[in-house]
Amino acid sequence: MIISSSSNERIKHARRVREGRERDLIFIEGERLVGECVASGLKLHACFTAAEPSESQQRLVEQVSCPVFHLAESVLESLGDTMSTQGIIVIAERPWPTLDRLFEGTAPLLLGLDRIQDPGNMGTLVRTAEAAGVNGILSFAGSADAFAPKTLRSSMGSAFRLPILPGVSGLGAIETCRSRGLKCVVATGEADTSHYDHDWTQPTMLILGNEGRGASAEVMKACDARVRIPLHAPVESLNVAAAGAAILFEAVRQRQG
Predict the structure, then answer these.
(1) Residues 84 and 21 in one domain
(2) Are residues 257 and 223 in contact, defined by beta-carbon separation less than 8 angstroms?
(3) What is the CATH number of the domain that holds 68?
(4) β-pairing, 109-114 with 204-209?
(5) Are residues 24 and 112 in the same domain?
(6) Tens digits of per-residue pLDDT, 19-39?
(7) Helix 240-256 and helix 119-131: axis angle, to 10°?
(8) What does 101-170 look like in DSSP terms, one character per residue?
(9) How far is CA 175 from CA 55, 108, 180, in A?
(10) What kind and span of H or E run contains 35?
(11) pLDDT tier at 83 (50, 70, 90 boundaries)?
(12) Quick one: three-class SS letters along 170-227?
């Protein structure tokens, strides 16, 4: 049976998931992301595909363990979050990692994100954090949703694997990290210490602040240290995702040394 109406109840529910109105479910679109989701073992609730899926889409459909619904092209286009239909969409359960999972190992490296607004920046930071071997991310209240469709496209599947705790209190995150032996370090252009001169081999949470305003005054004051990235004039600042990559991979260099 082919669903030919955008008013179908399953389509309306999927649309609510896409819009972030179903807290425990996430909307995943496109062959690459669906493949990453399936490989990550997330629990799937529904799969939507074209009435006549391509061979590669059909191979994915055969791997999912959930009901599969075939949609008329107009319905699939109306449901999608991209300019042109990607041909396959799944609804999956949002991962909710335990706090303990973020602190595994002898010298955890965490990333705290304070009101990061742009989904592209958020997704790139998630991808960068996984590539750098970060234990997990504490996403402070007011930050973009790491599992919104646009953010997922930017993170390219890393959000399925990297533990991410959303909506946490910045001061609460700092207190928790400190109680577990981590130093809390905030990046700011006003710091005296270069990120090259900081000791990243110790258990640490790096905090990156909002694109325009940086970290909040409360978070800045509560941190143990501040670092900056030395820049050649006349450049005064970097995009937060670029700054995060520079600092995290300096931490990687020190930890591997």
Answers:
(1) yes
(2) no
(3) 3.30.1330.30
(4) parallel
(5) no
(6) 999 999 999 999 999 999 999
(7) 10
(8) HHT-SSS-EEEEEES---HHHHHHHHHHHHHTT--EEEEETTSPPTTSHHHHHHHTTHHHHS-EEEEE-H
(9) 51, 15, 9
(10) helix 31-40
(11) confident
(12) HHHHHHHHHHCCCEEEEECCCCCCECCCCCCCCCEEEEEEECCCECCHHHHHHCCEEE
- What confidence score (pLDDT) does residue 86 get? 86
| Residue 61 identity (one-letter amino acid) | V
pLDDT class for 136, splitting at 50, 70, 90?
A: very high
Over residues 221-247, the pLDDT tens digits come to: 999 999 999 999 999 899 999 999 999
Structure tokens at 217: 């005054």
Domain with 21 in it: 2-93
Number of domains the chain contains: 2
The string of pLDDT tens digits covering residues 190-210 is 999 999 999 999 999 999 999
Dist. CA 69–CA 166, nearest whole Å:
31
Q: Are residues 219 and 154 in the same domain?
A: yes
Look at residue 257 and tell me whether its pLDDT is greater than 90.
no
Tell how strand 136-140 and strand 225-227 pair up.
unpaired
